[in-house]
Design brief:
It is a single chain. This protein is α/β, with parallel strands linked by helices. It has a domain of 76 residues. Helices cover 35% and strands 24% of the residues. The chain has nine helices and ten strands. Strands 6-7-8-3-9-10 form a six-stranded mixed beta sheet, with helices on both faces. A four-stranded antiparallel beta sheet has the order 2-1-4-5, with helices on one face. A hairpin with a 2-residue loop joins strand 4 and strand 5. The protein is globular. The structure holds adenosine-5'-diphosphate and magnesium ion. The site of magnesium ion has 2 residues, from helix 1.
Length: 251
């Protein structure tokens, strides 16, 4: 696979990335960069290749060509679990939580444990896990609901729980696919607040259609269309771009 950048200051550097499904290029020679502590939002019409870009980064889909560097380490060669270990966390469109476990248990189960939980270390580690679960539950607005079975949470609360399950693993890059879909207006506002909070010390890539929400969070926006970049820059810049209005915002 060709490697373009020798070294980069970007946390994530995607270069000449292409994936071809039976000859159809869902992502076509894409270059995209994410800085540390940046909230980078990808927008664009359905079928533009947004989810596929996230799939390529997290190793769910294999690139046909190009490079994805995270901390200058090539991700296109790695397996999914190795990419997680590098510090990349991914949330899918539908929440994948354990419905029959409590909020506390869902967070606890996601805490990255070391090799052994036995012996003298176990007690100390338990205290650490409990502290961390409380801290995260507070961040994702669920601290009053720690004992509630996840099945009884609202749709929005389930989304927050899953974000919490990723946060407890402390990824450096967090990727979220349509995190506010199906949320109420107040839940969307809270989610924007949450994302602005969690970028302190990490980067976030978000795919989203809700333009008000994008405006509230985005540091930089990439507009994808047919696997290629249509426009890129600040929200104000892409919103005013006639090409973007034509293929996306005007509809
Ligand atoms: P978006 O998230 O922007 O709506 P996707 O990334 O899901 O778009 O899909 C981009 C295009 O790639 C669509 O035409 C979709 O049908 C196609 N596609 C995505 N994944 C696959 C796959 N595994 N096999 C074949 N085609 C795919
Ligand atoms: Mg999608």
């Amino acid at each position: 696979m060709k490697t373009v950048t020798s070294n980069t200051d970007f946390l994530l550097a995607i270069e000449n990335l292409t994936v071809s499904f039976d000859g159809f290029k869902a992502v076509n020679d894409l270059n995209l960069y994410v800085d540390e502590n940046e909230i980078h939002v990808i927008i664009g019409p359905n079928g533009a290749g947004k989810t596929t870009v996230l799939d390529l980064i997290c190793g769910r889909t294999r690139a046909t060509d190009g490079s994805i560097k995270f901390h200058n380490r090539e991700l296109t060669e790695m397996r999914e679990h190795e990419i997680v270990r590098e510090g990349v966390g991914r949330k899918f469109q539908n929440p994948s939580i354990y419905e029959d476990l409590s909020v506390f248990e869902n967070l606890e189960i996601s805490f990255p444990r070391g090799r052994s939980v036995f012996g003298a270390l176990a007690f100390k580690r338990d205290a650490e896990v409990i502290d961390r679960v409380h801290e995260i539950a507070d961040m994702v607005f669920l601290k009053e609901l720690l004992d509630t079975q996840a099945a009884f949470l609202s749709h929005g609360q389930k989304q927050w729980l899953e974000i919490g399950m990723l946060l407890i693993q402390d990824p450096e890059l967090l990727m979220l696919d349509e995190p506010v879909a199906g949320m109420s207006v107040s839940e969307r506002k809270q989610t924007a607040k949450l994302l602005n909070e969690i970028t302190k010390g990490r980067s976030v890539m978000v795919v989203e259609h809700d333009m008000k929400f994008v405006e509230d969070i985005a540091h930089r926006v990439t507009v994808l269309h047919q696997g290629k970049i249509l426009s890129e820059g600040s929200m104000a810049k892409v919103q005013a771009d006639p090409k973007v209005i034509d293929v996306y915002l005007g509809h």
